[in-house]
Task: inverse folding
């Protein structure tokens, strides 16, 4: 099944890093990424994979920040800015990592989520975005 | 397992080893799966090869390592896999080394590495209760400054791979966090195992490798160099992970070859390697040495 090893790894990390209820919500969204692999229309499949991954990453980051710092940010941009400026237990995202996650995740995701008619062109483009999202989540869980 | 398989024909030996290894992982996965969520051969964004199993329950993440046949022969490769995995996983992740239980002199070097893991568990007497009861955070976390330095090196090498022409700007933005007198120099370094190879040279703390035309994938190109660079850079003292000698490498990529994917470049950077096309050796080593020394 598409992305199975990648999704299982992320689900494992979410269970270890988040309170049980939060991990359940995030992992249900990750599961929908693998389910989206069954959709036959390629454009729709790619978009669903991006949207479900994106919701999982957004919620995962948001809940993790709240769990660790009791700070609530509404979106990935707010979380990354907080991590750059304040960090978790004093461990901050460097400017370069902040910029990398903003450029490779937040901006690309926003294009597909908010622009009418915007779809990933092929599976490689989806893979690149999912990779960047995974890297962002594991980077933050490792702070 | 390892002892009986090391004798005899190499090809058959390897496939038998792999089959037994796979069976052993099936067994551990099945037993752990009753209590924990388990990912087999987890696909992590920053690792070419990570733990064999990653298991978790609320508040606890455990990474399991079962030595490969190559690691049974070269235990430093297992140590390098452990080092990169610890840097890639959350700080509270516990690490477990799975080993054969029977006394085996050939496994002694592997058993010696046990002190670098949270626990060593014999496969033939697998007691999952003791593993499942491993409390979160029993492994001494990697020093945040070591993590920070490694993250910055990864960011620099990845950005340098993507745009070598921007080296000057990168050097201004990704200064080494250890530059203010906290850098530890051992004054001695293990050169890559390919010391005599014409494909690797080093200048200062920068290693420059040329591609092997017979290998297509980036991982295959770098595989021989990963362990030496990791173990030259990081020192492992029990569960403590130190920066022994800041170093990094660059693979000179032929301009006619398509660049590897971002995923592969990210993994190479995490392991300490940039992939750089169209630049002479001196320019590359100057950029890397400048970043490593913190002088911009």
Result:
């Amino acid at each position: 099944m598409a992305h199975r090893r990648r999704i299982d790894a992320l689900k494992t990390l979410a269970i270890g890093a988040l309170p049980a209820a939060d991990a359940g919500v995030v992992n249900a969204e990750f599961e929908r990424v693998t389910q989206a692999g069954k959709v036959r229309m390629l454009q729709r499949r790619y978009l669903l994979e991006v949207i479900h991954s994106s919701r999982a990453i957004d919620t995962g980051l948001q809940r993790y920040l709240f769990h660790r710092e009791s700070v609530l940010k509404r979106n990935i941009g707010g979380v990354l800015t907080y991590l750059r400026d304040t960090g978790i237990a004093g461990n901050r995202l460097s400017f370069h990592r902040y910029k990398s996650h903003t450029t490779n995740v937040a901006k690309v995701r926003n294009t597909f989520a908010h622009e009418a008619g915007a779809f990933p062109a092929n599976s490689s483009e989806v893979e690149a975005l999912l990779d960047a999202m995974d890297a962002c989540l594991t980077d933050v869980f490792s702070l | 397992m390892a002892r009986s398989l090391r004798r005899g024909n190499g090809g058959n030996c390897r496939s038998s080893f792999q089959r037994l290894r796979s069976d052993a992982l099936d067994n551990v996965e099945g037993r752990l799966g009753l209590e924990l969520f388990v990912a087999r051969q987890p696909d992590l964004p920053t690792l070419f090869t990570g733990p064999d199993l990653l298991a978790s329950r609320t508040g606890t993440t455990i990474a399991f390592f079962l030595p490969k046949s190559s690691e049974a022969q070269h235990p430093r490769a297992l140590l390098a896999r452990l080092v990169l995995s610890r840097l890639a996983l959350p700080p509270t992740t516990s690490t477990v080394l799975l080993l054969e239980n029977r006394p085996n002199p050939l496994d002694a070097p592997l058993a010696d590495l046990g002190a670098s893991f949270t626990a060593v568990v014999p496969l033939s007497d697998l007691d999952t209760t003791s593993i499942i009861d491993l409390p979160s955070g029993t492994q001494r976390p990697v020093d945040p400054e070591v993590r920070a330095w490694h993250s910055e090196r990864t960011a620099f090498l990845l950005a340098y791979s993507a745009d070598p022409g921007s080296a000057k700007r990168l050097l201004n933005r990704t200064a080494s966090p250890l530059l203010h007198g906290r850098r530890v120099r051992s004054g001695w370094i293990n050169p890559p195992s390919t010391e005599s190879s014409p494909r690797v040279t080093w200048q200062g703390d920068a290693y420059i490798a040329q591609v092997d035309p017979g290998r297509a994938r980036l991982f295959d190109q770098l595989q021989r160099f990963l362990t030496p660079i990791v173990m030259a850079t990081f020192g492992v003292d029990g569960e403590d992970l130190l920066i022994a000698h800041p170093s990094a490498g660059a693979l000179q990529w032929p301009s006619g070859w398509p660049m590897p994917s971002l995923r592969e470049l990210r993994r190479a950077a995490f392991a300490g390697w940039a992939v750089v096309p169209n630049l002479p050796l001196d320019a590359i080593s100057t950029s890397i040495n400048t970043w490593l020394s913190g002088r911009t």
Notes: The CA atoms of residues 92 and 137 of chain B lie 4 Å apart.
